[in-house]
TrEMBL record:
Stretches of the chain forming a coiled coil according to its record: 249-279
Gene that produces this protein: stag2a
A GO CC term attached to the entry: chromatin
Region (Disordered): 1-68
Protein purpose: Component of cohesin complex, a complex required for the cohesion of sister chromatids after DNA replication. The cohesin complex apparently forms a large proteinaceous ring within which sister chromatids can be trapped. At anaphase, the complex is cleaved and dissociates from chromatin, allowing sister chromatids to segregate.
High-level lineage: Eukaryota, Metazoa, Chordata, Craniata, Vertebrata
Full protein name: Cohesin subunit SA
Keyword Cell cycle listed: yes
Presence of the UniProt keyword Ribonucleoprotein in the record: no
Domain SCD: 285-370
UniProt organism field: Electrophorus electricus (Electric eel)
Family: Belongs to the SCC3 family.
Any GO molecular function: chromatin binding
Subcellular location(s) of the protein: Nucleus; Chromosome; Chromosome, Centromere
Ranges annotated as biased composition (Basic residues): 36-45
GO BP field: cell division; chromosome segregation; sister chromatid cohesion
Length: 1240
């Protein structure tokens, strides 16, 4: 058993008196308050008593557990795993068993911890009586299953998740039920703590993890017991003081003595609990909080946070807080997360803030920096912790707060919302006494100042295009403020009161944007684009809130919006935002609320805005507003439709009139007339985007205008751009009507003539016109491609339009001329290349143009081989368009693998031809141009992935085309010289690794068809690409002995009978003769061969161990059919057995040295960190952190644990990759090594 001597040396508890709880204590056990055993050597029973007690069991109980309905006996582990029995009853059964026979019950508890670790073995009674703690642990280590690294705490599934909860609950309930007597018997707790301490020091991860969790939960339960003892001691002390303060006549001396006795007993119990806690803390926590396993470190930090929160008087000091502070530098996010959650529980209680002042001052900077943690969960909790720290006055500086403020614009919504709460509590939660008497609504209310503060913050952040992100961040905590639209309107419309500073124009613009974002958030109830994964299902309460908000918005803004438009009608930016508000109205309220006059006022203001402005954003906002109001489901439709028709009638009539006059002017066009035509056409185009204007026959007018522009060549570019766009809308509306069945006219003439018009405009002098024509062409070709007849729309087949080769060529030339250009060559920014924003905008525009063309390739609208001119730009423009080109290659490969491969090789061929034109046929293969092509081929090869079966045919076709290209052109040097494109084989070799082994031989045979006998004899540098390519095909081929022999004799078979095996690779000497390289057997006539380049020898020779059993290994020496005459006889060969042994020993020594270098494993001395990544602070930094902090913990006089001296006897941790071999295994390995050495 776990000997008493060991426990006595491990734990020196103070036991001053042999007492029991008095009758009136509130901690006594009602059933066994006199059951506390005497304090000797653990009160062990005599062996005869044990035998006698072992046979005494309560009736109907086996192993301390009830048998229900005749079920088989279950161990504690199985009961906890099943989770069908209440933990309270399981613990009570064990306690009864312990009272009747404590050795057997304790053995069952020990096996419970062993089995919970995943160990298949069990501690027997004999082991329990006679073996030491370390011996038992070593024995259990041998029982582990080496084939699996899983154990209960790491297994997945609901059963094991429930088991972990039941395991922790069992320990807590066990201590709670034993807190009155059993934990003070100097036997149960001593044994359990000693076992868990030893297991936590094990090299086996399962033991270490499980025992650490058990020890930490045991510590938590003991902390709860200590807290109760402390409370009872305080109560007893107060009772004693109250009794003693009475007069002598009224004082009860017996009660005073009883209270003194009770307080003494409580003090003794508290001392024992304190010793237990110190033993666990110093024996387990201080070693495992820096364990190599992150889960173990997280357990320690999580539990110490519970202790400090539960029993702050004992644990909330710098001696324990330092561990949390240090561990905040841990490299694993889950450990840092536990640190933050532990601190949140402390800072949440404002009464504890004074005890945290020193810790806050030392680790505040680290907490602030964790708001930018790479782990999103950690960053969120760090911000929440900083929000709690705000309660402490002036702890966070302005710089600290600003580092959190900007996170409200983060794309990660939890971080943004946590930052929004921090911002709201910092800026808006402080209420001054002067604000108590302010009105609830209006310009002078409290929210008015808060709204102004929000506007000021928004402007100072200089992210004016992200108002929706700011509103979304503050929505959870500041919804009431953001929904105060009456106050916002009052700030915009009402006059300022005396002494108030009015909002500037910039501030009013920002306020309108925030107001619009708040309205959108209230009505749509989902985060803005880029923040969030999608719409979620709203609850009934959220739906009701949404409807109420929408009703409120309509009632408020239906009245205020015309007034706001009247005031800001000339400001394009303000009007654009204001005109988006009607999209969120409940239009039925216009009728039910009798707000028709306000609707009329709104329509008048929109009409005035259309007539005043020519800005595209403003006109599109007006168009969308009419689209939202023109809903046939509501009674206001007729009124809005009439207003819309009148507006469009006026604009179309005006356009026709102006256009006729404009075209009659000929070459002498007036600028004012051109401006009028452009502005009117711009308004019509903006409305045509959302409204059907086909009844005005705009196609004829616009086509006539465009045709005139082509003939004269002096049409203003803005007129051409809007005419192209308007004509495009006409065609799309006609297609929509045909698709819906409202029109039976199916005509392709308009589409063809318009596409031809756009193609002619691709040669315009204006870059803007060419870009517009290109974009419209790509959209039109996509819409009217063969995809149009999908999903049962065969009726639209006459509308299918496929581009001819001329149009495809023009589109490709546009991409090459306007997309693949250097940044400095782009003149589209009108001389503003130095402006970084303009450069980014120009790049964004070019990316859109490239993406539009790549869609045509992906959907097979244009020939896939046109993508070769795109793919060849992959390396040169990788930073700008690499993602687009790579995605295009991926999509085309999904459509047609073979055609995609042919396109890739075509792009390489084009680059090779360009290089020849630039450098000539005698170029240097080490030049940057050739190396760039080869690097591009390598990148192309990587895109084929690892599954060679899927790409087998494509790779084979790629090699076929590459070989044909290499031998296509004759040698410029005449007969006998290398082909012009022979160097292309060096590029093609980058794809050889993607060939299957059986395909390499096939490709090699295909290559030999193009080779002549003379080519196989060449050795000059100009032939190296051929040699290199052939070697790349031979590496890993089916026939490992396949050499560079000419294809002249490829039909002969190599004999397998007289092959000689080689035990290692041999490198070809540089001076060896070509005829001595390799010969064929079985009387085949020897053929002169081409010798491989010396530096490529490794691609031909292979390791003998990779050969098939029926194959030999051909060395670099000549092999003869005569077995009695071989050059190998010149060098006597040692016996094969000896050679194999030497090789084995060399490999073993290498393994031994490798293991020795990893000797710094898990269990180093406590003075040094266990793993480098656990403590991230340097020694100097730790000294700075330690300075001024009291690190003295509760001391316990314990001798050094034997477990650390005995750990060398343990087996390696088969579950922990960070573990190392112990000394015994190393010694065995050395003995094994020397045994083989002397044996041989």
């Amino acid at each position: 058993m776990i000997a008493a001597q060991e426990l006595q040396t491990d734990f020196h508890y103070s036991h001053e008196a042999d007492t029991q709880l008095s009758s009136d204590t509130d901690l006594e056990d009602p059933e066994s308050r006199n059951a506390k055993p005497g304090k000797g050597k653990k009160g062990k029973k005599a062996p005869s008593e044990k035998v006698k007690g072992a046979g005494v069991r309560a009736q109907g109980r086996v192993n301390g557990h009830h048998q229900e309905n005749g079920t088989e006996n279950l161990s504690l582990f199985e009961i906890v795993k099943l989770g069908k029995s209440a933990t309270q009853s399981v613990v009570d059964d064990w306690i009864e068993s312990y009272k009747s026979e404590r050795d057997m019950a304790l053995l069952e508890l020990i096996n419970f911890f062993i089995q919970c670790s995943g160990c298949k073995g069990a501690v027997s009674s004999e082991m329990f009586r006679h073996m030491q703690n370390s011996e038992i642990i070593r024995k259990m280590t041998e029982e582990f299953d080496e084939d699996s690294g899983d154990y209960p705490l790491t297994m997945s599934g609901p059963v094991w998740k429930k088991f972990k909860w039941g395991f922790c609950e069992f320990i807590v309930v066990l201590v709670r039920q034993c807190q009155y007597s059993i934990i003070y018997d100097e036997y149960m707790m001593d044994t359990v703590i000693s076992l868990l301490t030893g297991l936590s020091d094990s090299q086996v991860r399962a033991f270490r993890h499980t025992s650490t969790l058990a020890a930490m939960k045991l510590m938590t339960a003991l902390v709860n017991v200590a807290l109760n003892l402390s409370i009872n001691m305080d109560n007893t002390q107060r009772q004693y003081e109250a009794e003693r303060s009475k007069s002598l006549g009224k004082r009860a001396n017996d009660r005073l003595e009883l209270l003194l006795q009770k307080r003494k007993e409580l003090q003794e119990n508290q001392d024992e609990i304190e010793n237990m806690m110190n033993a666990i803390f110093k024996g387990v926590f201080v070693h495992r909080y820096r364990d190599a396993i992150a889960e173990i470190r997280a357990i320690c930090i999580e539990e110490i946070g519970v202790w400090m929160k539960m029993y702050s008087d004992a644990f909330l000091n710098d001696s324990y807080l330092k561990y949390v502070g240090w561990t905040m530098h841990d490299k694993q996010g889950e450990v840092r997360l536990k640190c933050l959650t532990a601190l949140q529980g402390l800072y949440h209680n404002r009464e504890l803030n004074t005890r945290l002042e020193l810790f806050t001052s030392r680790f505040k900077d680290r907490i602030v920096s964790m708001a930018l943690d790479k782990e999103y969960d950690v960053a969120v909790q760090a911000i929440k912790l900083l929000t709690l720290i705000l309660h402490s006055d002036e702890v966070l500086t302005a710089e600290d707060c600003e580092s959190v403020y900007h996170l409200v614009y983060s794309a990660h919504r939890p971080i943004a919302m946590a930052s929004g709460e921090f911002l709201y509590k910092k800026l808006f939660s402080h209420r001054g006494p002067e604000e108590d008497g302010l009105p609830r609504r209006g310009r002078q209310c409290r929210n008015a100042n808060l709204i102004k503060t929000t506007v000021f913050f928004f402007l100072e952040s200089e992210l004016h295009e992200h108002g929706a992100y700011l509103v979304d961040s503050m929505w959870e905590c500041g919804a009431d403020l953001l929904k105060d639209w009456e106050t916002m309107i009052s700030l915009l419309l009402d006059e300022t009161f005396p002494g108030e500073e009015a909002l500037t124009d910039r501030q009013e613009t920002a306020l309108i944007e925030i107001m619009l974002c708040a309205v959108r958030q209230a009505c749509e109830c989902h985060p803005p684009i880029g923040r969030g994964t999608g719409k979620r299902v709203m609850t009934a309460k959220e739906k009701k809130t949404q409807l109420d908000d929408r009703t409120k918005i309509t009632e408020i803004f239906a009245v205020a919006l015309p007034l706001l438009l009247t005031k800001y009608s000339v400001d394009a930016e303000k009007v654009t935002n204001l005109l988006q508000l009607p999209q969120y109205f409940d239009l039925e309220i216009y009728t039910t609320g009798r707000l028709e006059k306000h609707l009329e006022a709104l329509l008048r203001q929109i009409r005035e805005v259309v007539e005043k402005h020519t800005d595209t954003d403003v006109l599109e906002a007006c168009s969308m507003t009419f689209h939202a109001l023109c809903n046939e489901e509501f009674t206001i439709f007729n009124r809005v439709d009439i207003a819309r028709s009148q507006l469009l009638d006026e604009q179309v009539d005006k356009f026709h009139r102006l256009l006729e006059d404009f075209l009659q002017e000929g070459e002498e066009q007036d600028e004012d007339d051109a401006y009028q035509v452009s502005s009117t056409l711009k308004r019509i185009t903006a409305f045509h985007n959302a409204h059907d204007l086909t009844k005005w026959d705009l196609f004829t007018s616009n086509y006539k205008l465009l045709n005139t522009g082509l003939q004269n060549g002096d049409m203003p570019e803005q007129i051409v751009i809007h005419a192209l766009q308007c004509t495009h809308y006409v065609i799309l509306w006609n297609l929509a009507k045909v698709s819906e069945g409202t029109s039976k006219k199916v005509r392709l003439t308009h589409t063809e003539s318009f596409c031809l018009m756009c193609q002619r405009y691709l040669s315009s002098l204006s870059t803007a016109v060419k870009e517009q024509a290109f974009t419209i062409l790509c959209d039109a070709l996509m819409i009217f491609s063969h995809q149009i007849v999908a999903s049962g729309r065969e009726v639209l087949e006459p509308l299918v339009f496929s581009p001819d080769s001329s149009l495809q060529s023009d589109l490709l030339n546009f991409i090459l001329d306007h997309v693949f250009i250097d940044q400095d060559d782009d003149n589209s920014t009108d001389g503003q290349q130095d402006d970084e924003a303009c450069k980014i905008e120009a790049l964004h525009k070019r990316r859109n143009l490239l993406a539009a063309y790549c869609k045509l390739i992906i959907y097979n609208v244009v020939e896939m081989n046109t993508g070769a001119d795109i793919f060849k730009q992959y390396m040169r423009y990788y930073n700008d368009y690499g993602d687009i080109i790579k995605e295009t290659m991926s999509k085309t490969r999904q459509i047609d693998k073979i055609q995609c491969a042919k396109t890739l090789i075509l792009s390489l061929q084009q680059l090779f031809n360009e290089m020849l034109s630039e450098l000539g046929c005698n170029f240097d293969r080490s030049s940057s141009s050739f190396c760039g092509i080869k690097e591009l081929a390598r990148r192309f090869s990587l895109t084929f992935g690892l599954d060679q079966l899927k790409t087998r045919e494509a790779i084979a076709m790629l090699h076929k085309d590459g070989i044909e290209f290499a031998f296509k052109e004759p040698s410029p040097q005449g007969e006998g010289g290398p082909p012009l494109n022979l160097a292309f084989l060096d590029i093609l070799s980058e794809f050889s690794s993607k060939l299957l082994r059986q395909d390499r031989k096939t490709v090699h045979m295909y290559l030999e068809r193009f080779m002549t006998f003379q080519m196989s004899l060449q050795r000059e540098d100009c032939w190296l690409p051929l040699i290199s390519y052939r070697n790349s095909l031979q590496a890993g081929a089916d026939d490992d002995t396949l050499s560079v022999i000419s294809g002249v004799s490829r039909g002969s078979a190599r004999s397998k009978k007289n092959k000689m095996a080689s035990t290692g690779k041999r490198r070809l000497p540089e001076g060896v003769d070509a005829g001595a390289w390799m010969t064929r057997e079985q009387g085949v006539q020897q053929t002169p061969v081409m010798m491989s380049s010396p530096h490529m020898t490794s691609t031909v020779l292979r390791d003998a161990k990779k050969l098939r059993p029926d194959e030999g290994y051909v060395g670099v020496y000549t092999m003869s059919n005569d077995p009695q005459h071989t050059p190998l006889q010149q060098t006597p060969q040692p016996p094969l057995r000896w050679f194999i042994t030497v090789v084995w020993l060399v490999q073993f020594v290498y393994l031994f040295v490798y293991i020795s270098r990893r000797s710094a494993g898990l269990m180093e001395d406590d003075e040094e960190p266990i793993v480098e990544d656990v403590m991230m602070s340097s020694e100097q930094r730790l000294e700075d952190l330690n300075e001024g902090m009291d690190f003295d913990t509760m001391d316990i006089d314990l001798p050094p644990s034997k477990n650390r001296r005995e750990r060398s006897e343990l087996k390696p941790d088969y579950f922990d990759p960070a573990s190392i071999m112990d000394d015994s295994s190393s010694g065995l390995s050395l003995s094994f090594f020397f045994f083989f050495f002397f044996f041989f």
